[in-house]
Amino acid sequence: MDWKIALKVGGPSIVATWVFYSIITFILSESEIFKTNIILHFFVIIVVFIFCLVMGLKLMSAGNKKHKNTFIKNEVVDNKVDENLNIALNSSEIKDNKIKGNTVKKDMNIGGR
Q1: What digits encode the pLDDT tens for the residues 25-67?
Q2: Per-domain residue ranges for the chain?
Q3: Is there a contact between 84 and 103 (Cβ–Cβ < 8 Å)?
């Protein structure tokens, strides 16, 4: 597993999932009691299901939170830009700003999504 990519995509939950998987795999393969007891098999399946359910709910609740980006009372004055100048992109509220005297060779974008 490439840990750099995994951590970029999943964050710390990847590490928690991998540790949980490793512990469960080790216990199931090494313990004799799990090889002979069907009740413990069901218990492990229930624990894994609850773990996956909690991680899924945590992921869904993190995705539902919307952060309000604001760009209020700022000064963008006398800048010389050779490329594009993007100001307050993805901001939901833009007001009371001073934008003047900027020299831009390409596009100047204020706001937008």
Answers
A1: 888 788 787 778 888 878 888 998 998 899 888 888 876 666 6
A2: 3-64, 70-110
A3: no
